[in-house]
Design goal:
2 helices; globular; 16-stranded antiparallel beta barrel
Length: 421
C-alpha cells in the first residue's frame, strides 16, 4: 500500500540520517533557530558553536544557508479509535491509524545582514512534505500548491517563497510567507509540544501572500504593517481578498516581552479556484503573546486570540471565536525540559472548528510534555493530552468518517522524533 511504503521511507530516512550524526554532545547552551521571520516566536533549540553539529550547509560559511528537519511520530487516543482521522479535531495530529512523518522540511535562504550599514537583500524558499503538507497548502483560494498530494494523508507544500530588501532598520518583504501567528508556529522546530493548540489550528492564519514593511523604532520596539491576499492564499487571489496585517513586538525588559499581531479586511467573495467554496465576508483576528522569564530555568507564556468573520453567507452570516492559552516551561537540565499547556478555545457560533458535528461551544485541553535533547541535532518530544468539550454535539471519537462524534472528551498520548540538519 502507498501509506505503508511512505512509513518505510520515514524509517529509512531517520535511520540513515542517524548514522551521519556524530557522538552524543551534552552541556552546551542553546539558542533559537532563525526561521527568517522576525515576528514569529521561536522555541527551537540548537547548540551554537558546537563543532560536532551536523548540517546540510555550514550556517556561517557563506551568504547562502540551507537546512531543514524531519519530524516523525505517532499519536494514539484512549478511545481505541484507529481510523484515519481518529484523533480529530486535534490540529495536524488527527491521524490515528499509523506512525506518520509529519514534516520533511527543507529551506534555502540568503538572510539579510542586519548589522550591515546601508542596503542589503535576501530571499527564502521552503519545501515541505509529509502529513502536515496538505494542511499548509494554499487552501484559501486553492491556488499555487493546493492539491499537491500523493496519498490520503501525504502531500507537499511550498509554505514560503519571498524576497526582502533591508535598509538600516527598515525591511520590506514581498512574496508568500508564513502568517502572523501566535506562540505556536507551522515549523515543528519552533514548537515545544508535538501537538498544537486549537487557536493555532482554527484561530489564526497559516500563510500570506503580499508585502509587509517592518521597522525597528528602537532596540525595544519594532512595528510592521502591510497588505495581503487574505488567509492561506497565493498571488492568484481567486477570492479577490484584500486584508491589512500589522503588529508590534515590545521588549519591556530582559525578562518580559509582548507581541501583538492583527489582520483585518475583505476575507474574499467565497469562490476559490474552480468555483470551490471558501473564505467570504469581512475578517478581523488578532493574537497577543506575553512572555516572561520567571527565573533562569522557568518561563511563562500567555496567548490570547480573538476573531470575527461577518457576512459569510453561512448560517447566521457571522462567526466569532476567542481563546486563552497558558504555557509554563522549566529546564530540568541541559538536555531535559518540561512543559505544560492549558487552553480554552470558544467557537461561539460553531463555524470555526466544525469537525465531527461540533456546534457552538468551548474546547478545552491540557497538555504535559517533555523535551529530551540527547544531541544538538535530535529532539524527542513525548506528551500526554486531555481534551474536553462543552456545547452542542460530541466532537471526539468519530466512527462514521467525520460526520459525527461519540464523545465530549478525549485522552491522547503522542511522541515524535525531530532530526534537525
Amino acid at each position: 500500500m502507498q501509506q505503508t511504503a511512505e512509513i518505510r521511507l520515514v524509517t529509512a530516512v531517520l535511520f540513515a540520517s542517524a548514522l551521519l550524526l556524530p557522538s552524543r554532545v551534552v552541556g552546551q547552551d542553546s539558542i533559537g533557530l532563525d526561521n527568517g521571520l522576525p515576528w514569529n516566536t521561536n522555541w527551537a533549540r540548537i547548540d551554537e558553536g558546537n563543532e560536532n553539529l551536523w548540517s546540510l550547509l555550514d550556517r556561517g560559511g557563506g551568504p547562502l544557508e540551507c537546512g531543514g528537519w524531519i519530524s516523525a511520530g505517532f499519536t494514539a487516543n484512549a478511545h481505541g479509535n484507529r481510523t484515519g482521522k481518529g484523533n480529530a479535531p486535534l490540529p495536524l495530529n488527527s491521524i490515528a491509524d499509523a506512525p506518520v512523518m509529519n514534516q520533511l522540511w527543507l529551506y534555502a535562504e540568503k538572510p539579510l545582514d542586519r548589522e550591515r550599514m546601508g542596503a542589503d537583500w535576501g530571499f527564502r524558499i521552503d519545501y515541505l512534505f509529509g502529513v502536515d503538507g496538505p494542511e499548509m497548502q494554499a487552501a484559501g483560494d486553492q491556488g499555487w500548491d493546493f492539491g499537491w498530494n500523493t496519498s490520503r494523508d501525504y502531500g507537499s507544500a511550498i509554505p514560503q517563497l519571498y524576497a526582502e530588501l533591508g535598509f538600516h532598520e527598515l525591511v520590506l518583504r514581498v512574496g508568500y510567507a508564513i502568517g502572523l501567528q501566535g506562540f505556536e508556529a507551522n515549523q515543528a522546530v519552533d514548537n515545544f509540544f508535538y501537538s498544537h493548540n486549537y487557536a493555532y489550528g482554527y484561530g489564526v492564519p497559516g500563510t500570506f501572500s503580499g508585502a509587509v514593511l517592518e521597522y525597528e523604532l528602537s532596540d525595544n520596539l519594532a512595528v510592521l504593517g502591510g497588505w495581503t491576499t487574505g488567509w492561506d492564499s497565493w498571488w492568484s487571489n481567486y477570492l479577490s481578498a484584500s486584508t491589512f496585517v500589522g503588529g508590534l513586538t515590545w521588549t519591556l525588559s530582559d525578562e518580559v516581552s509582548l507581541t501583538y499581531h492583527v489582520t483585518i479586511g475583505d476575507f474574499g467573495d467565497g469562490t476559490a479556484k474552480n468555483g470551490a467554496k471558501s473564505n467570504a465576508g469581512q475578517i478581523y483576528a488578532h493574537a497577543i503573546v506575553f512572555t516572561c522569564e520567571i527565573s533562569e530555568r522557568a518561563s511563562y507564556v500567555l496567548e490570547n486570540t480573538l476573531g470575527s468573520n461577518s457576512h459569510t453567507g453561512v448560517g447566521s452570516g457571522n462567526s466569532q471565536w476567542y481563546s486563552l492559552t497558558n504555557y509554563l516551561f522549566y529546564d530540568l537540565s541541559d538536555c531535559w525540559s518540561a512543559g505544560a499547556r492549558i487552553e480554552w478555545f470558544c467557537d461561539e457560533d460553531g463555524q470555526r472548528v466544525n469537525v465531527n458535528g461540533a456546534g457552538p461551544g468551548s474546547f478545552y485541553e491540557g497538555t504535559l510534555g517533555i523535551n529530551w535533547e540527547p544531541h544538538g541535532n535530535i529532539r524527542i518530544r513525548p506528551e500526554v493530552r486531555w481534551d474536553w468539550f462543552t456545547g452542542q454535539g460530541r466532537p471526539f471519537d468519530s466512527r462514521n468518517g467525520g460526520m459525527t462524534g461519540t464523545s465530549v472528551h478525549q485522552f491522547t498520548g503522542g511522541l515524535d522524533v525531530l532530526l534537525i540538519f
